[in-house]
Design brief:
The chain has about 180 residues and is an alpha+beta fold. Helices cover about 20% and strands about 40% of the residues. It has four helices and 13 strands. Strands 2, 3, 4, 5, 6, 7, 8, 9, 10 and 11 form a ten-stranded mixed β-sheet that branches. Strands 1-13-12 form a three-stranded antiparallel β-sheet, with no helix packed on it. It is globular and about 40 Å long.
Length: about 180
């Protein structure tokens, strides 16, 4: 009985791992590299489209799109675009490196092994490529790297992507297009 209760409740690390299991299922086995572009142009005009380099990875019948995200001036970190995620996620190592402050709130997450609650951190400054994102909260989870190392350092979810109204993911061109803010 005690062993079953321990498995069901787990520790803090167990809950983070619980949340990482379904996320890890999305990951690829190899290392994902960011190809940085050096072509910084002038600030976009209102109504213009801002472009962010997109790394598309196909393996095992899955297609993942990664974008560079800078958090608190650190990075870039490789975040997967995930319109199905209601909340953006950062790996606990990224949260530590970027000095994110935990809010004290814990959010419920569910995975194939059950449910758990994980910490939430406040992000005051972050960017996807060179495009600033609004301050907000992120869920902090231990996103263990897939076998072979490397991989995902966060998820950019619909809580952030929906702020743009519409986005274009150009898999062929390797570009995420975001509308410029109206002045």
């Amino acid at each position: 009985m005690e062993d079953r209760d321990r498995r069901r409740t787990g520790g803090r690390r167990g809950l983070r791992r619980l949340a990482s299991v379904p996320l890890a299922a999305l990951l690829i086995g190899g290392c994902v590299l960011y190809e940085q572009r050096d072509d910084e142009g002038p600030a976009p005009s209102p109504g213009a489209v801002r472009e962010v380099p997109l790394r598309v990875v196909e393996q095992g019948g899955r297609t993942l799109a990664f974008v560079p995200v800078t958090v608190g001036g650190k990075g870039p970190f490789m975040f997967a675009l995930d319109t199905g995620a209601s909340s953006s996620v950062v790996d606990d190592d990224v949260a530590d490196e970027a000095g994110l402050r935990l809010t004290g709130e814990r959010r419920a997450v569910s995975g194939v092994l059950g449910m758990g609650r994980v910490p939430v951190a406040e992000v005051t400054e972050w960017k996807v490529g060179d495009v600033p994102l609004d301050p907000g909260d992120v869920t902090v989870i231990d996103l263990d790297p897939p076998r072979g190392g490397g991989g995902i350092e966060g998820l950019l979810g619909s809580d952030v992507l929906s702020d743009f109204g519409s986005i274009t993911v150009d898999y062929d061109d390797g570009t995420l297009r975001l509308p410029a803010p109206a002045s």
